Amino acid sequence: MTPTVPxxxxxxxxxxxxxxxxxxxxxxxxxRAQDEVAALARALAGPGAERxxxxxxxxxxxxxxxxxxxxxxxxxxxxxxxxxIWMRDTGPIFRGDGRAIGFRxxxxxxxxxxxxxxxxxxxxxxxxxxxxxxxxxxxxxxSLDHDGLGALLTTRQCLLNPNRNPGWTEAAAEAALAExxxxxxxxxxxxxxxxxxxxxxxxxxxRFVAPGVVACPIAWGKADPNANLYDxxxxxxxxxxxxxxxxxxxxxxxxxxWIDGEGGPSxxxxxxxxxxxxxxxxxxxxxxxxxxxxxxxxxxxxxxxxAIGLPSSAILTGGxxxxxxxxxxxx
Length: 331
Hints:
Elements: E1 12-18, H1 23-26, H2 30-45, E2 52-56, H3 59-69, E3 75-79, H4 87-90, E4 93-94, E5 100-104, H5 107-110, H6 120-128, E6 132-138, E7 145-146, E8 151-155, H7 156-159, H8 170-181, E9 185-189, E10 207-210, E11 213-218, H9 227-238, E12 249-254, E13 260-261, E14 264-265, E15 274-275, E16 279-284, H10 288-301, E17 306-311, H11 313-316, E18 326-330
Parallel strand pairs: 1-2, 2-3, 5-6, 8-9, 11-12, 16-17
Antiparallel strand pairs: 1-18, 4-5, 7-8, 10-11, 13-14, 15-16
């Protein structure tokens, strides 16, 4: 039987993190995005108790990273070639047997294809000293969430989208996930957040936080664009069982509410937290009260770790947040 992917709360050997490196992609948001990623790196290396391996592309990006982080122990700068910082999607997924599992990457269904992104998985595997198993189907790490015991959360909107693997059915996807990642049961949700260019990645919507326990958002404010989606997701999850047959327990975390984006609400989510060895880092946006409630809720779910909220508004202009730009390497 194929080994499974450890849960994110399992011990890590390292945390891989992408550093904004391309001025032509980030434009006026570059400096702020670099500041936010540097603050995340500090938190991961400090209370997060992680060995942070910060991937930079080019001389200017390396200099910017060193200017912000040279005084921080536990942060190692790794030169690499990549299109952008979304390492959760372009990097490999590490299984419990130490193998790095890579997939084809097609720019989230052909939307944003950038030079180097299809090489990130091989580069991380080589730097980690891990054997790379490359699979010939399109997959992004942010579309999957693992409980470490064989159950996996995902959305039909993304995994069965014809812009990824044309003709895939639920059965075909489940067989591929079982063979590559040791998945024993897939828990299918429907759509993801409104205006999410990833076509509904689950790491903005629902996350395992313990065996048999899943968190999802609850609407914040009257104008929350995803209010109905959040309630329907909670109802679906409450009716599901994990790979062991146990009923799921559903916990709710306040959403950020309506956060302005281009032409409508942005896909901002407090669910895009990253679980580190000693902390859980929660992305914060415009509404301070919503953010404070979200950090408190996350703290209640992870009593043995420190919940920390950090700004992520500049990173959000690129389409994602903390979970999207990281990838854990299990111990």
